[in-house]
Amino acid sequence: MKGKRGLKLTYVGVWHFTRLAYRSALFVLLLIGYIRYRFMYGEPLMLRIERMPVIIYVTWAVFVIEMIARFFPSKYESPGCQKQFAQNYIKTGNTEIEIPDNNATFLVALIWIVFNGFFGWLHMLGILDDGAMVLLCSAFSVCDMICILFFCPFQSWFLKNKCCAACRIYNWDYAMMFTPLFFVSKTYTWSLLLLSVALLIRWEITFYRHPERFSENTNAYLRCENCTEKLCGHKKQLHSLWKQVEKYTKERVRRLEN
């Protein structure tokens, strides 16, 4: 598959866009269902969904399979999460470990906890129900793919890492995605949350035991020439297009004013 200017979309990129598609479809269906049953029929979304358990089983299974796969090396996953494995550690000859974005991880964690704590507080007050928390979780799942494919606020505003391959918190994604499920007391919701936390803990343990795998200075796997994702080119195209739109808009405004 090729994009503009002859850029090839790698198999890792195809997998990212596939996940964006079905996560977006799930979010749209949940949003429509929430509006329909909550505001038109006065019925909680979760009650309606639990009458159709196949939806829960399929969605739960998809995310569980995705997370379990993260525990093992895979050529279909991003280098961002694959750098933790020993087989992807390519020595550069350097011994100085440089991870400039490490301190910012604590700030990101604090912001995320406070942000979700606000929604949790609204849930405890009864303003938001379980359906709203699941809908928020689904929205996070879509935002996760947007961060990878188009724009990541954590990268741009806090971590300042060059790309997803070098991201210090890449494997935090599922734990961040499923944070709202902490407030939904269901077996299938808490099982997703616990598995995502286990994935995060495994990531952090690996980081503190083998930090050399997470540094581009010591691990050549993280360098551009060894990247199997190649999404930076598509992001640059998007940024270039956005600049062109801004330039065109300003020019149009200037002409109208004159």
Short overview:
The protein is mainly alpha-helical and 258 residues long. The protein has ten helices and no strands.
Low-confidence stretches: 1-6
What helical percentage do the residues reach?
55-70%
Query: How many individual β-strands?
Result: 0
Evaluate the radius of gyration: 21 Å
Shape: globular
Please trace the helix and strand order, writing H or E for each element: HHHHHHHHHH
Give the termini separation: 45 Å
Mean pLDDT: 90
Number of helices: 10
Class by alpha and beta content: mainly alpha
Largest sheet composition: none
Description:
- The structure is a single chain.
- The chain is mostly helical and 258 residues long.
- Helices cover 62% and strands 0% of the residues.
- The protein has helices at 11-40, 45-50, 53-70, 79-82, 104-124, 130-149, 153-159, 173-177, 187-209, 232-257.
- The longest helix is centred in the N-terminal third of the chain and has 30 residues, at 11-40.
- The chain is globular and about 65 Å long.
- Mean pLDDT is 90; it is low at 1-6.
